[in-house]
C-alpha cells in the first residue's frame, strides 16, 4: 500500500543576494499512518525547511521546489495555494517550538482554537466554542469552561503549548508536524507534553513528523528515524536500529556527544568538531567529509570526490563498507 506521506527527491532552493542556497537537496522519505517519523539534525540541515514545504508555507517568490510530495494520494508540490489552505489545519497541522508564534495576543485562546474548526467544518460559533472547550479538556487544561476565554498571556508556557496542541488537533489531522515542540519548556513540562502527544496520537491515529535535535526525546517518541545533514538524509531506519547500531559517522558523532541514551537528556549535545556546511557552496563528495574522522578508512579519495547515495530501507549514505559501518561504532565509539 501507498505510504500516507511520500516525499521523493525533494529539492528546495532559495535565491539570495549571495547565490542559490540548496536548503534541501534530494530528500526522500515516507511516513506511515499512525506512526512517528523523527527527523534529527543540526540547525541548517534542512529539517524545518522540509516540513514548511510539506505545508506549503515557503515563499513562492524566492523559493524553488522540485520533486514529489504525495499526501494521501494528493500531489502537493504542484498544488495551488487554495488547495493547500484546505489541507492546512485540517488534514495536516503543525505545532511550533514557540506557541507565541502561533497564538495571537489579541484574541482569546478559545477563539483561536475554534477558528480552524469553523473554517474547515463550517460549524457555528457556538458549536466551535464547545469543541474548543472539549479540546482544552483533552490537553489537560483545568477548568476549560473558564480558561477558554483567557488570552494567551494568562496561560503559562506549558499551558500555551497545550493550547497550541489543542488547536492543531481540533480538526483531527491525519498528519501532525511537530517542530521542536518542547525545546523551550523545562524538563518536567516537556515530559508531560510528550506524554500528552503520545496519548493523543493513540486516540486520533495521526501520523507525526517529529523534528528535534534531541536524540533522547526522539528515542522516546519516534518509530522511524531520519538523520539529516546538509539538506540530505544521511541515515534512516527504525529508531532502535539507528540509535543502537548507527551506521553513519555523523550519527556516531551525535550519539557519542550524548550523555547516555535513556539517561539525563537535559544536557546540551557537545557539538561535533567543525561547523555545519555552507549551503551556498556545499563541500564536494560527501558533505560531511570536512568534519569526518573516518575518511582515512575509505581509499581512493572517494569521500571528497564522490557523493555517497542513500539506499532505500535501512541505510546510511557513506562510502565505508557494510562491514565497517557495522563494526566501527561498536568497537570505537560507544556512547558515553
Ligand atoms: Fe565520512 Fe567518507 Fe563516510 Fe562521508 S563517506 S561519512 S566522509 S567516511
Ligand atoms: Mg528548525
From TrEMBL:
<feature type="domain" description="ABC transporter">
    <location>
        <begin position="7"/>
        <end position="255"/>
    </location>
</feature>
<dbReference type="InterPro" id="IPR050388">
    <property type="entry name" value="ABC_Ni/Peptide_Import"/>
</dbReference>
<keyword id="KW-0067">ATP-binding</keyword>
<dbReference type="Pfam" id="PF08352">
    <property type="entry name" value="oligo_HPY"/>
</dbReference>
<dbReference type="GO" id="GO:0005886">
    <property type="term" value="C:plasma membrane"/>
</dbReference>
<protein>
    <submittedName>
        <fullName>ABC transporter ATP-binding protein</fullName>
    </submittedName>
</protein>
<dbReference type="InterPro" id="IPR027417">
    <property type="entry name" value="P-loop_NTPase"/>
</dbReference>
<keyword id="KW-0813">Transport</keyword>
<dbReference type="InterPro" id="IPR013563">
    <property type="entry name" value="Oligopep_ABC_C"/>
</dbReference>
<dbReference type="GO" id="GO:0016887">
    <property type="term" value="F:ATP hydrolysis activity"/>
</dbReference>
<dbReference type="InterPro" id="IPR003593">
    <property type="entry name" value="AAA+_ATPase"/>
</dbReference>
<keyword id="KW-1003">Cell membrane</keyword>
<dbReference type="GO" id="GO:0015833">
    <property type="term" value="P:peptide transport"/>
</dbReference>
<comment type="similarity">
    <text>Belongs to the ABC transporter superfamily.</text>
</comment>
<dbReference type="InterPro" id="IPR017871">
    <property type="entry name" value="ABC_transporter-like_CS"/>
</dbReference>
<dbReference type="Pfam" id="PF00005">
    <property type="entry name" value="ABC_tran"/>
</dbReference>
<keyword id="KW-0547">Nucleotide-binding</keyword>
<dbReference type="GO" id="GO:0005524">
    <property type="term" value="F:ATP binding"/>
</dbReference>
<keyword id="KW-0472">Membrane</keyword>
<dbReference type="InterPro" id="IPR003439">
    <property type="entry name" value="ABC_transporter-like_ATP-bd"/>
</dbReference>
Amino acid at each position: 500500500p501507498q505510504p500516507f506521506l511520500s516525499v521523493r527527491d525533494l529539492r528546495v532552493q532559495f535565491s539570495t543576494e549571495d547565490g542559490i542556497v540548496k536548503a534541501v537537496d534530494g530528500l526522500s522519505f515516507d511516513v506511515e499512518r499512525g506512526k512517528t517519523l523523527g527527523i534529527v539534525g543540526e540547525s541548517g540541515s534542512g529539517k524545518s525547511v522540509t516540513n514548511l514545504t510539506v505545508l506549503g508555507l515557503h515563499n513562492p517568490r524566492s523559493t524553488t521546489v522540485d520533486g514529489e510530495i504525495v499526501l494521501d494520494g494528493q500531489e502537493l508540490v504542484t498544488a495551488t495555494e487554495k488547495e493547500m489552505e484546505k489541507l492546512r489545519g485540517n488534514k495536516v497541522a503543525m505545532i511550533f517550538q514557540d506557541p507565541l508564534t502561533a497564538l495571537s495576543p489579541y484574541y482569546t485562546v478559545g477563539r483561536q482554537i475554534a477558528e480552524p474548526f469553523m473554517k474547515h467544518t463550517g460549524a457555528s460559533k457556538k458549536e466551535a466554542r464547545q469543541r474548543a472547550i472539549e479540546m482544552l479538556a483533552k490537553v489537560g487544561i483545568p477548568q476549560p469552561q473558564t480558561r477558554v476565554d483567557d488570552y494567551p498571556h494568562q496561560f503559562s508556557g506549558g499551558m500555551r503549548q497545550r493550547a497550541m496542541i489543542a488547536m492543531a488537533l481540533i480538526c483531527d489531522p491525519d498528519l501532525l508536524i511537530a517542530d521542536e515542540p518542547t525545546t523551550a519548556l523545562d524538563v518536567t513540562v516537556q515530559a508531560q507534553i510528550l506524554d500528552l502527544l503520545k496519548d493523543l496520537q493513540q486516540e486520533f491515529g495521526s501520523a507525526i513528523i517529529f523534528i528535534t535535535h534531541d536524540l533522547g526525546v526522539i528515542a522516546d517518541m519516534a518509530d522511524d528515524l531520519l538523520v539529516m545533514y546538509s539538506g540530505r538524509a544521511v541515515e534512516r531506519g527504525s529508531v532502535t536500529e539507528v540509535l543502537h547500531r548507527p551506521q553513519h559517522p555523523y550519527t556516531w558523532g551525535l550519539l557519542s556527544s550524548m550523555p547516555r541514551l535513556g539517561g539525563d537528556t537535559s544536557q546540551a549535545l557537545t557539538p561535533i568538531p567543525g561547523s555545519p556546511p555552507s549551503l551556498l557552496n556545499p563541500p564536494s563528495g560527501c558533505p560531511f567529509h570536512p568534519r569526518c574522522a573516518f575518511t582515512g578508512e575509505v581509499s581512493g579519495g572517494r569521500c571528497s570526490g564522490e557523493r555517497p547515495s542513500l539506499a532505500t530501507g535501512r541505510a546510511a549514505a557513506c562510502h565505508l563498507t557494510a562491514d565497517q559501518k557495522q563494526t566501527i561504532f561498536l568497537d570505537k565509539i560507544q556512547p558515553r
